[in-house]
Design brief:
single chain
Length: about 250
Amino acid sequence: MTRLKIERQPLVTSIERRVFLGRTLSVGALALLSGCDISDQDEVQSLLKFMSRWNDRAQAFLFNRQRLAPTYPESAVLPGARYNAYFPAEEAPKLDAADYRLELSGLIGDKRPWTVDQIHALAQESQITRHVCVEGWSYIGKWSGPRFSEFLQRIGADLTAKYVGFQCADGYYGSIDMPTALHPQTIMAVKLADEILPQQFGFPFKVRIPTKLGFKNPKWVTTIWVTNREPSGFWEDRGYNWFSGL
């Protein structure tokens, strides 16, 4: 497969402003709590990183693999899924089903690439769940696809490892904890509203994780790896909390 190379311009001003405002609010709270001089940026950033790591550990401790995100009836599904990315819909990656190969690496026993047909051949299930965006909006939709846990078992992934990482065709990258990867509602969504997943929403699949905020649900996935090394993420490297889930 010819690797898709997509270069992106710097993030638009509105996106950077959201990150800035989030950090500004955090700085103000920390200044009140700690009495720190917020002009000392090194001190501020150290405190922010410490609080973020503490928050990640607390959320991971509270996470329950058996607790399900709310599900909804068909009547609750909203028409017209909302497109969401940091670039226009017409710039979304266009991956060809015939050429696509899902690459595997890390702590995985069988690293042979997967085709679209192989992914679609796995047993599928449907869920009607709410996508919650960090920007403040949400969308109830119907997604269908194989359980991610069953895919990980099929490829001989080390299920005792700590993390699963993703690389995407648009340059996005992300990671989740293994308990979330094995959660029964985490799926490789190959369909939206009972139709093959449209190109602008992540074809050939997106990792649908209803127990996480929307930015933790990667689209246009081209590589999956399993690791014990603490990974990062596209938005996490720009100030977002890493765990970002129930």
